[in-house]
Fold this sequence. Notes:
By secondary structure, the chain is of the alpha/beta class. It has a single domain (2-174), classed as Alpha-Beta Barrel (TIM Barrel), CATH 3.20.20.60. It is 48% helix and 13% strand. The chain has a six-stranded parallel beta sheet with strand order 1-2-3-4-5-6. The longest helix has 19 residues, at 176-194. The radius of gyration is 19 Å and the shape is globular. The two termini are 36 Å apart.
Amino acid sequence: MLPMLQAISAGGVPSLVRVPWNEPGSIMKALDAGAGGIIVPMVNSVGEAKMAVAACRYPPTGIRSMGPIRARAVDSEWRQPICVVMIETVEAVARAREILAVPGIDAVFVGPNDLAVSAGLDSSYEASDPKHRRLIEEIIEAARASGVAAGIMCGSADVALQWYRIGFVMLALQSDTRLLEAASARIVAAARELIPGDV
């Protein structure tokens, strides 16, 4: 993570780290390494949202320990990193307005596939099932009500446009592993077309 954050800051763009879980130690470690913000997965309650915010803030508003050696050097806003919570279960959608109203929550990020699985539906970035789409629409409505930015994993440019049109502004197009897989498939297919024999 640290070399990646160094490269990102050298490029002059903001950095967000999705931590493995809503665990203060992981959040603080990423922030101390220079992350401009944190994305916290599987936030299902107000209490969990408050816990995520507290790990991002120094006392008296939070519990973050004082050790921002690199963070202080690269980020003039080191005292107030961005706190993004992920809503990706039916349980969390039912509490979305309360979760997103927690002071210190800056944005919400939707995991559409986990959300579909939580609802007993087939996973899809585009939410082809009307029930799935309605759950995602409830999240964007809650984000608007609380005045927080909303993001979502899209999988493709077409799906990104679909979600942008209803108010999502943080549009993750694809994961690094899927990008690598797609690029590898393309280069192998091109080689098979150009090189005779069993390649």
